[in-house]
Amino acid sequence: MPKLDGTHILERLTKRIEQLEAGDEIADKEIRSLLNDAQRAELDSAWEQQQQLRANKRARTEQEQQALGWKNKRQVRIEVLKAALASAWDGIEAEFERLKEQAEIRGAKIYFDTLNQALKDGKDKSVATNLANNAMTRAGLRRMDGQQVGQQGLTKRDREIRAMEDELLEKALSEMDDYEREQYELEQEYEKALRERGKKLGR
After folding, report:
1. Cα atoms in the 13 Å half-sphere on the side-chain side of 172
2. 104 and 158 in a common domain
3. What's phi and psi for 163, nearest 5 deg?
4. pTM of this prediction?
5. Residues 76, 43 contacting (CB under 8 angstroms)
6. Residue 1 falls within a domain, yes or no?
7. How far apart are CA 203 and CA 200, in angstroms?
């Protein structure tokens, strides 16, 4: 089974919480598979505390149960999953950076492997460059020439990740002060200039 990245964890935690709140039955292994070791220990500890609470303090009515802090297994699971979801959101920017770096390494390999093969096949540099960029488009990665392409070539997963990236960027921009926004805009202009230079060199 492939290792889940941070974006998968967010989606699955959200889905499981919604299912539990709707009253669906979920196997214990499905819950535990989304938690790290510390979170699993927290889940076990929380349920053990509930069992001890029931053994030590009796309650006849629902009001008495609530007053004593009684929770059923579903409520304990929901609390732990919500805490795990909050933790996952806290680390999502770092996870996107990791995925971005991973994609850049993969993209560079696809680009240069395709470029070198095209040159070996006797293609001129311009054609070889286009073939390499097209290979990156098919892989759902950003092209080296900076050209924007439609999302029809992207997988559903790629489109979801891009949408989440856009959402995080929009949130970050809304929280920037004037100085930070100015620095961001300067950085965008610098990257645009680099892309333009890359296009000219590619010719």
Report:
1. 11
2. yes
3. -65, -40
4. 0.47
5. yes
6. no
7. 5
Instruction: Please compute the mean of the pLDDT values over residues 5-21 and round it to a whole number.
Output: 82
Residue 119 half-sphere exposure, CB side, CA atoms within 13 Å? 10
Beta-carbon-side half-sphere exposure of residue 106 (alpha carbons within 13 Å)? 14
Residue 61 lies in domain: 6-90
Structural domain ending residue among the three candidates 30, 63, 90: 90
Q: Answer yes or no: do 104 and 156 share one domain.
A: yes
Cβ neighbours, 10 Å, residue 161: 19
In a domain, 27, yes or no: yes
Least confident residue range of 38-47, 96-105, 169-178, 189-198: 189-198
**Residues 21-53: tens digit of each pLDDT:** 998 988 889 899 889 899 999 999 989 988 887
- Residue 159 tokens, joined: 């489109």
Q: Tokens in use for 105?
A: 């390494």
